[in-house]
Design a protein that fits this description.
2 strands; two-stranded antiparallel ribbon; mainly alpha; single chain; Arc Repressor Mutant, subunit A; elongated
C-alpha cells in the first residue's frame, strides 16, 4: 500500500485537534476528506488509528505509534524540500568558472 503525504497530515491534524471537524478546518479541507483519507489509511495498514466517539477522536495505541512516525516522516520531507530548494535557487552550492586556454591568449 502506498501512503499519501496528505494522509499523514490528516492524522497529525486530527491527533492535535482531537476532532476530524477541527482538523478539517485547520487544513482547509472538507471533514469528509479527512474521514475518508484516514479510513483508507487504516484499511490499508490494517489497524485503527483513532477511536471515534461523539466528542471527537482519540488515538489508539497503534495510532500513537503511527503518529510519532508520521511526524518524523513529514519533518524529514519538509527538511529535504527546504534544503533542495536552497540549492535550486543557487543560495548554496558551488560555482565553477572555467576558461578555455585558447580564449586567454591575448585577452587576459
Amino acid at each position: 500500500m502506498a501512503i499519501d503525504l496528505r494522509q499523514l497530515r490528516y492524522v497529525i491534524a486530527a491527533a492535535e485537534h482531537g476532532s476530524f471537524r477541527q482538523a478539517a478546518a485547520s487544513l482547509g479541507v472538507e471533514v469528509s476528506a479527512i474521514s475518508r483519507g484516514i479510513r483508507d489509511l487504516e484499511d490499508g495498514i490494517g489497524a485503527s488509528l483513532f477511536s471515534r466517539h461523539s466528542g471527537g477522536v482519540r488515538l489508539t495505541p497503534a495510532g500513537e505509534l503511527f503518529l510519532t512516525r508520521a511526524r518524523n516522516v513529514v519533518t524529514e520531507l519538509e527538511t529535504a524540500e527546504r534544503d533542495v530548494g536552497v540549492i535550486g535557487r543557487g543560495e548554496r552550492g558551488r560555482v565553477r568558472i572555467g576558461i578555455y586556454s585558447s580564449l586567454t591568449s591575448g585577452f587576459l
